[in-house]
Amino acid sequence: MKNKILLLFIFALGLMASCTDNFEELNTDPKHPTSVPAEYLITNAQIELSDQISSTNVNNNIWKLVAQYWTETTYTDESNWDIVNRTIADYIFRNNYRVLKDLDDARTIVEAEEPVLDADKAVKQNKLYIIDLMQVYIYQRLVDIFGDIPYTEALDYENYTPVYDDAATIYADLIARTEAAFDGFDVAETSFGDADVYYNGDVALWKEFAGALLIKLGITIADYDAVLSKSAVNKGATNTFTSLSAGAYMPYVSSAPYNNPLYDDLVLSGRADFVAANTIVDKMLELNDGRISHYFELVDTIYVGGEYGHSSSSATNSHPCDAVYQPDFPGILLTYDEVLFYLAEAAARGGYTLSLSAEEYFNAAVTQSFLWWGASADDANDYLTENPYASYTNWKEAIGTQGWIAMYTRGLEGYNFFRRLDYPAFNMPPTPPDGVEDIPTRFTYPINEQTLNAANYQSASSAIGGDFMTTKLFWDKF
């Protein structure tokens, strides 16, 4: 009898436990989990970031137009720098901060991990450094677009009116954060594994990325703070990209939803909104640049660029090349040729501790650009023989022009080469916004910030010299 009672008691306990488990399961929404693994947030952040950079949807990304690689066929507002009608600045602001917040949430989750083994501690720290580098990359873009931005208070969701931090101070902190990752990575250990779609968790490649980012940050402020610029570039150059394959790319695939958004914009939309701009076509024809066949398509037997900012016929002007129409065209964040152009610029400025001359870095950068686009090294050599480094008026023209050409499809980077070095010459469109009488040097702040964060917006506007498209950023000194 005692054994029967004991068995009944055990059965009852099991039934109660089962009911409790079932009750908890029924009250758990699998589509809205209470916690998300950091790996999920990292993957999503990387995809979202690349999508923002790659897209050419005029509602949210017009950098290929701003850099005068492309122009529009019918609706020409964006080629004339109208960023207000579609509230483009609001989209850029909102979506970059959304990715930053995802990364911040991932950081919180990783920081809560309690590793026991030394190897696990190293993996945890590697993850935190990767999160830092991704945030640095995004913050630099935001500063380069707007100037002063929310930074120290930016990611507190309970603070709807964050202060704007000084852009130069932000840059100094971004460099410090990147240096910490560069020095602190344990390349013998792993990180996020295949949840990291850029580098599959390869910490050695992330360290090279940190070096490249230091070079990019450092050279951008060369005219503002030469000492900090040299420190950052010199450190980054000791361990950075040495091949095109080491660059940071988003490996898009041929099917939705993980295809390049350019495919959606240019093919699935069924629209023909963009053609090559005469700014780049004319310059490439002038230089007899063989990359033009990899950038644009012929119109009958010639390359024709639409007059920038004017309505341009889709039928009679060159279209972007077939490569960028492919769904698996990679998202491009930071590449070897880009870094080589920065090193060429550092060598030309002088005072940096580098192993090659400006001309050697310049030649290597142009060659790598040719190779990236599928042209041959012989093509690059012929081009450099015809257009040697010494043939330009000065080093700014040489590096500015070739850096801009090489950044094709990477509009913000191409625009930055123009802003920093004042080459090549850009064209004025026919109907720029009122008061804009020269090429813009920044985007104005989002309309939402002007209304919902008015006091801090006014302070930031005053601090940078006015919220105008022609206000220069702190690093754009000349």
Overview of this structure, please?
The protein has helices at residues 2-26, 38-54, 63-66, 88-111, 118-146, 167-184, 203-220, 226-237, 261-268, 278-286, 292-295, 336-349, 358-372, 377-386, 395-406, 411-421, 447-452, 454-464, and strands at residues 70-72, 149-150, 164-165, 248-250, 274-276, 331-334. With 478 residues, the protein is mostly helical. Helix 4 (88-111) packs antiparallel against helix 5, helix 5 (118-146) packs parallel to helix 7 and helix 12 (336-349) packs antiparallel against helix 13 (358-372). The longest helix has 29 residues, at 118-146. The N and C termini lie far apart (97 Å). 46% of the residues are buried.
Separate helix tally = 18
Mean pLDDT comes to 93
- In N-to-C order, the SSE pattern is HHHEHHEEHHHEHEHHEHHHHHHH
Shape from CA axes?
globular
Helix content: 40-55%
Q: Tell me the structural class.
A: mainly alpha
How is the largest sheet built, in terms of strand order?
Answer: 1-5
Taking the alpha carbons of the first and last residues, their distance comes to 97 Å
Uncertain segments of ≥5 residues (pLDDT<50)? Answer: 1-34
How would a crystallographer describe the biggest sheet? Answer: 2 strands, antiparallel
Q: How many strand segments?
A: 6
Oligomer: single chain
Q: What radius of gyration results from the CA coordinates?
A: 25 Å
